[in-house]
Amino acid sequence: MTPPKERSSKEQLLALVEANPFIGQQELADRLGLSRSAVAGHLGQLTREGRLLGRAYVLPQRQPIVCIGGTNLDRKLRAVGALRMGSSNPARQHESAGGVARNIAENLARLGLPVHLLTAVGRDAAGQTLLAQLQGLGVDCGGCLQAADAATGSYTAVLDPEGSWYSRSRTWN
Question: How far apart are CA 97 and CA 10, in angstroms?
């Protein structure tokens, strides 16, 4: 096991390399108060660990994951009493963010992975809220279409009091 001091020096060295990938071994040694051979040893370890790639201290880059597909507002309506066709049916409503691509992008972002989402939403309150939630998690939504002349897609599930499904969805036309 590496003693804490060495681990600390190695992490400090990595931070200096991240700040300046072209920094020389002697400058690293001078800034860290280490011998040049100790710096070379740390650089070798970092290279073997895959935390540095090759000679110019090239750092591995995390490629973003691109999710392409739907983002919509999911609604569940659960009838308070028995459903009656042709009549008013009081219900409780629950709304949540939905859409397969949006759901995947959210979960990947929560895992700390770099994510880009390509989707289409309306330039309405629902669309703006859905994108803002994702951006708050670190999802890049810069490539999303925000249509001024269309509403954000939605899915509505109508449930009877026991939880059986009746469904209707609205999609882009």
Answer: 43
